[in-house]
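Researcher: I'd like a structural prediction for the single chain below. Treat it as a standalone chain; there are no partners to consider.
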Amino acid sequence: MALVQSHSKTVMKKPILSFIAILLFVFTAQSQEVIRMQSCQDPMINKQVDSLKMIYEKEGFVLLKEASIAMESEFEMPVVIPLTQGSWYQFVFIGDYSSRLYEVRMYDWNERQVVYQQKRWGDVDGNIISYSYIPQFSEFHMMKPVQVNKKKKKNLCGYVMLFKKTAVEGNASR
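Model: Treating it as a single chain, here is the predicted structure.
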């Protein structure tokens, strides 16, 4: 009888251990989603994206990369991009319209800051940061946009675009 009781206790422990292992796996899998870049939708940002694409195409730029990104207030979202020496690039970051502060820092492969721009909500084009850059070396660069929002700490929408100049002609003034 004692053998049957000890065997039933062992059998009862295994489902509990299996259940705990499954729960740990599920929580680990869900927590990894926070690390990955996630997209978002904002109709106002989408209109700005469409307008900027038309402007830069008229100026002889071609769109290389673009992404909508879900962001959290005061947290940088690193974007790594390969750049070619001597090429003319145009970078654009569009932040959530309700944010109060927008910043973009860009670093070269040696982790030197090569670009820094800041905008505030009251500026004419406050939620858009756009800058040109011609790298001295062919290497990866890291762009780090951040926005500060007092109302919404999470689920802020942002958008990044990378253009490359392909044509010499075009209207260079904006």
